[in-house]
Design brief:
The structure is a single chain. The chain has one domain: 3-Layer(aba) Sandwich (Glutaredoxin), CATH 3.40.30.10. 29% of the residues lie in helices and 29% in strands. The chain contains five helices and nine strands. The relative contact order is 0.24. The mean pLDDT is 95.
Amino acid sequence: MAKLKEGQKAPDFKGTDENGNAVSLADFKGKKLILYFYPADNTPTCTVEACNLRDNFDTLKKEGYAILGVSPDSAKKHQNFIKKHNLPFPLLVDEDLTVIKAYGVWGMKKSFGKEYEGLLRTTFVINENGVIEKIFDKVESKRHADQILEAMAAA
């Protein structure tokens, strides 16, 4: 799939959250959505990113944003992650990588000199009309909410 670009329609998706509730892009029509993709629950950087979004949830919500996290983890792992870190937003279960691949965030990664396929940490800000307004492929996990708010204020 071609790399997604700012200004284009966000790919539609359907899936389930950590509690088995159906979730789709259509559920966010008329709302601004922070759709963030992260490699795995309870890993250091992913936890920092999720907790930063949690700590700034009220501010983001006040600015009109909904948040949805996506990783290839199971519903049970998501439930534990949410409970352990008191996350106020849902996490989409994408074990078959359907949504991850539709958004083009699965690819080659490098760690400790080894190359492997994996999820590329990426955040999409999608506007009320389902259009991608901003793509963050260099996520600053410790200040991700500020990174989003600053970029959107400047847009």
